[in-house]
Amino acid sequence: MLILSRKINEKIMIGSDISISIIEIRGDQVRIGVDAPKTVKVFRQEVFDAIMAENRAAAQSSPVFPELDLGIKRDPF
Questions:
Q1: Average pLDDT rounded to a whole number, residues 43-63
Q2: Does residue 34 lie in a domain region?
Q3: How many CB atoms within 10 Å of residue 25?
């Protein structure tokens, strides 16, 4: 992990098209701004974790399709 120190209004660049700006420091909270292309999804960690959990649950579940009665007799064996 790279650890950097920044002051208000200073930025961190990730590649050439993503920047993180320090907007405000108040007590133990830091407000940051992320400037990235619209194709790059940016989430808070807890939101990202919730999305990943939902995706895993959806991938593990099997769809439920009710049987349709189309008047077709099926041999049970």
A1: 91
A2: yes
A3: 13
Amino acid 48: pLDDT: 96
Judge contact between 22 and 32, C-beta under 8 A.
Answer: yes
Binned at pLDDT 50, 70 and 90, residue 13 comes out as very high
Domain with 53 in it? 11-60
15 assigned to some structural domain? yes
Q: Would you put residue 27 in left (φ > 0), alpha (ψ -120 to 50) or beta? A: left
- Please list, in sequence order, all residues whose beta carbon lies within 8 angstroms of the beta carbon of residue 30, skipping any fewer than 6 positions away: 22, 24
Cα 32 vs. chain centroid, distance in angstroms?
A: 17
Q: What are 25-51's pLDDT values in tens digits?
A: 999 999 999 999 999 999 999 999 999
Side by side, which strands form the sheet with 11-14? 11-14, 18-26, 29-35
Residue 50 lies in a domain: yes
